Amino acid sequence: MESHWTEVIVALIKCVFSLAFVMQIVPVLIWAERKFSAYIQDRPGPNRAHIMGIRAGGLVHTLVDVVKLVVKEDIIPDHVEKKFWFAAPVIAMSCALTTFTVVPWGDRFVVPASITAWWGGEGPLTVPLQVATINSGMLFILAIGSLSVYGVMLAGWSSNNKFSLLGGLRASAQMVSYELAMGLSVATMFMLYGTTELDKVAAQQAGPIWNWGLFGVLDADGFDPLLFVGWIVGGLAFIMFWTSVFAETNRMPFDLPEGEAELVAGYHVEYSSLRFALFFMAEYAHMIVGSAVTATLFFGGYNIPFLPGDSIRAHADTIVTVLGFGAVPVFIAFAVIAWNRRKRPFYQALAPDDIRHREPRFFAAFWSVLAIAHLGLGVAGLTGAVGSTALGPELLAFILQTSSLVIKVLIGTFFMIWVRWTIPRFRYDQLMNLGWRAMLPLALGNVFLAGIWVIFREAVQA
Amino acid sequence: MPTVKIDGIEVEVPAGTNMIEAARKVGIDIPHYCYHPHLSIAGNCRMCLVDVEAGGRGPDIACNMMARDGLAIRTDTPQVATMRRATMEFLLKNHPLDCPICDQSGECRLQDYYMEYGQYESRLSDPKVTKHKRVDIGDHLVLDAERCIACSRCVRFGDEITGTGELRLFNRTDHTEIGIFPGARIQHDYQGNLADICPVGAITNKDFRFTKRVWYLKETDAVCTECATGCNVRVCHQQGQVFRLLPRRNDAVNKSWMCDHGRQAFEAITGLDRLLRARVQGQPADLDDAVAAAATLLREAGGGVAVVLGHSASNEANWALLKLTRDNLPNATVYAVAGNDPGAWDRSDDFLMDADKNANSAGIAALMAHDPAIRDRSDLVQALADGDVDVMLVLGDDVLGRLGADGAGVRVIHVGSFRCTTSDAATVVLPAAHPYEQDATWTNRDRRVQRGRRAIHPAGDSEPAWALMERLGAALGKAPGATSAAAAFKSLASSVESFSGMTYQSLGNGGAVLASPPSPPTDDEDALETIHA
Amino acid sequence: MNLPVEQKRTFLERIYLVEIVKGLAITLRHALHNLFKQDFETFEYPDVRKEMPERYKGAHRLTTRPDGRVKCVACMCCAQVCPAKCITIEAGELDDDPIEKYPVEFQIDMLRCIYCGFCVEACPKDAIRMDTGIYEINAFTRQDMIHDKAYMTDLMAGKKPLAESFYRAHQDAAPPGYDLEEDRVLPVDEPRGL
Ligand code: SF4
Ligand code: SF4
Ligand code: SF4
Ligand code: SF4
Ligand code: FES
After folding, report:
1. Is C100 within 8 Å of B213 when comparing Cβ atoms?
2. Domains in chain B and their CATH numbers?
3. Of the residues A82, A391, B95, C170, which has the maximum number of CB atoms within 10 A of its CB?
4. What is the ipTM of this complex?
5. pLDDT tens digits, B99-116
6. How many Å lie between the alpha carbon of C175 and the closest alpha carbon of chain B?
7. What angle do CA B289, B292, B298 make, to 5 degrees?
8. Domain residue ranges of chain A, discontinuous segments joined by +
């Protein structure tokens, strides 16, 4: 009876955490997209909005954007098919978020007995760091991923607008085409891992870097050059999976469903205000989830290379000391840079009483405070204050592993943004050619290759 | 008929045709200012100079060169081009650069011919001769003497058409100036024509002054319905608004002229007296409801039903009304009430302005000849006096006003465009479109059936009267059954002998005269008295 | 029909990946350069303003005669030539002026205007100009985006139009009949308009 409640509460906490995980990254991505694209195009990017003089490199714009989207008039055109039109953005958003439930963001979290005792639990409670530990994890991702096309399709059709309809049509054709390659590359990985459960998949990639799915080795005891042939299988699967992720997220160069030039805004042309925001966020949520799944399948998931979860727990103090002292000079350097920004021509040109003059000072102080905090952390590590508690190593492992996943996700999404501002959009026939005539045969071949490789690997490892 | 040769093309023309008209026949345009087909020939602008190849000595002016056998002229030689350019330079020597504020701009012959034949560099070094500007010469006219090219068209119009002769060319050489005698003022009823015939912007219309640039205006051919003459007009309009009327040449009716009253008649389209909404018992109503109310009135009439044809309504509407009555109201009596509405404009003469202010009196006469059961004015007076009329259906005319009756005890259905005694007394009012808002035909005093085309959309809820008759017929049980004005006219032509064989196509722009003479004129003394009073 | 011959691509080009990486390198180079150097060509617009070239086509103004009345005679040439059909003029008659015609109202719908400058070219009276150098043409309502006669007459009160300095420097470039003295700018308190 009691343990049921515990489970429910733990599950709820995990839900909120994963939701927060995705939703926290979205604004950062939007900001990164704006700033990075600006830098690519030789312009400064967002830099106007400020809160009491603090512009935070344009981050405030994202905040303003949210306010704008919330308070904007929600226009419901007369000619739309109301039921589906309302449902579409919700479907798009929830599909993107649902996929994340099977992605593990750490190996486990052991709540020490001293804490479980508060609500009368018996002994320590081991919580798997994954919202839903289901045994068909990968298939679940594929299933939900294909559902997300309904959001786009319904939006396109129910808007009753030729541009949206064309956008919806393009989206569905594109998704069908790329789902195949995606499914096949997932199948490849599934053969390599021998399981579809993503927590097991992640666990298999712990340890040295060549254990990553990308190299197709897994669970190697030592480094054997021969085994490196596996990257052909893993690498091919990765490229195909990654391309399909682009297609599924409707990002450049696969953003034909939105194609501003010819379709205005494609399937979401009739949406405004928060409904539009849902589509907008769904795109970024898709990117995050796509990157997270890719990281889990190919890049070791939450694992830090050469530092499995158990090692983190065993050497908690050392790690805290190194990280704490290591971060101090970095933050001090940041503080100095921020302080020096005073001399930039921009600040020189401002009126002396302009409120934005306080910005360099603010950031210098901010980084200094961080540096001091990390100094404290290092001292705490030195004194062994972390490793001696029951909760300390667990928390450290949790934070490091989650950060490891976050960093991988950020690298992935950053790459997506980078590609978007580099490559022009495909033509529709090129898109279809690529999907059916290049990726599908390659993916099929790769499945066979994977079969051979699995047998070969066993032979070598034996 | 003599045969002449123009630019090598032979053409046979009636004797007495000048070379401008002969050239027009073969599609060659000879530029001209002073020549006007309905005025005498003055030959003073020299713009129409052409080379004479054979049969005379040239160069000579085409406007005064009458067709004769063996005559051959050329309009395409370099010499002609030089002469035209020289004439343009001469005419424009003292001309002010007024185009931005000149109402003629856009339809000015000086602009047109300069672009076509002038295009010279100005050689004028002396100051221009200045003359009187913005002279008020009449109620409808403004004169700018600087713009005048002394073509004398206006002088001849005053001498030959109206016979009033107010305008003259004074002084000599480049000080020649058009003007009126001191203290005089143009007061005749055909002033607007002076603005029309002036080939430049010297005489312009005060009413149209600065209201619209002419190049924005679209023109629709129509017929003036202000009196029985039925002058042919062009309705100049833009975006559903009429800005001016211009006479349209029809040598059988109005030549190139029209009167000033007719010229401003379009103002009534947007006037305060215009009926724009249907009314039932004095209250605004939907057109459908009003038609239903009218049908109920007619069907459930206690006593006699009187149907009165409209002397100012179109042939189509009158025919639809007659047909509707015969089909649905077997007990009704049809009347035609001649005479003018009280308050109608009262000027008339023996030129264009007819004493009969009804546009379609001859059409009604033709219908009366076709259907002898149609009773006249005195019969309706009698019936009203006897109390035989319970419901009266009136098309267009102010019948109560014409009869001087108050309509007590009679329930009136009025189908018309304007407010009048009858519409005020009416139980049901159906708003009818103005003549310029519909396709229809009217029969003028010479029994010429003439076609007007729709220039603008009917204002408010109004509809063409024939269409209202269709609605009413449908509500009563049997509609006359026309879906367009052309179909309504076809039905009329196939039933009424005098109209037989006519279609909208065959009427064309000139109209056609009714076949057989009508029955002898009405012996209705009152009506004649009213008209010739 | 002659279709353009498709360019022959090498194998490396055909598998895209290498070319994509090359492209990515270019964009990254720009991004990193700008991140560290921050030497953009961009103007920090509201804080730093660009000097407009003298013949820049900005907001329209109606020029005035020395007595403060607009030069425009409502000839409609500008309204006629305007490709966006955004000029509305209502003409009226002046009783006490040898120039009989004037615009009772003169409106330009700046939301529709495409700043082609045809109206300026067409005007026979040099009555409309786009030499104000004003490019911040914005408003909170659509109605306010319709510039009317009073606004366009007052627009440059106390300010020098760009054209004046330009035509002073390049007298032969001035339109025929252009009179620098007549183009003087009215002090703010002098009466203007009609
Ligand atoms: S008369 Fe003709 S040429 Fe003369 S100012 Fe008027 S429009 Fe211009
Ligand atoms: S006023 Fe007109 S019509 Fe009369 S002479 Fe002069 S140009 Fe001819
Ligand atoms: S600039 Fe061009 S579009 Fe704008 S008002 Fe002038 S003519 Fe019209
Ligand atoms: S072109 Fe010039 S004079 Fe004519 S209406 Fe336009 S601004 Fe006025
Ligand atoms: S038209 Fe022949 S001289 Fe004027």
Report:
1. no
2. 3-91 (3.10.20.740), 271-530 (3.40.50.740)
3. B95
4. 0.78
5. 999 999 999 999 999 999
6. 17
7. 145
8. 70-303+425-461
